[in-house]
Design goal:
This protein has about 70 residues and is α+β, with helices and mostly antiparallel strands. The protein contains one helix and two strands. It is rod-shaped, with a radius of gyration of 30 Å. The structure holds zinc ion (ZN). The site of zinc ion has 8 residues, from loops.
């Protein structure tokens, strides 16, 4: 039996024959494969930039004064 298996092109959804002849499977064409590769590359190149709000935190030890030490006047 030689039932041909079909897959859907991840890029455009076209039906692709899953055979040795389909060089670009699971994509229907080289174009779709390149589009997918480009999307992949651009995603991996997206380097998360340092959050500027994170470095805005100021560590001030003097600000942590004990409120109970405050003298109460009579
Ligand atoms: Zn396609």
């Amino acid at each position: 039996m030689s039932a041909v298996k079909y897959v859907s092109c991840p890029q455009c959804g076209a039906r692709v024959e899953w055979t040795q002849a389909s060089t670009f499977r699971p994509f229907c064409s080289q174009r779709c494969r390149l589009i997918d590769l480009a999307a992949w590359a651009s995603e991996s190149y997206r380097v998360p930039l340092a959050d500027p709000a994170e470095s805005d935190e100021i560590a001030d030890p003097d600000a942590d004064a004990d409120p109970l030490s405050k003298r109460r006047g009579s």
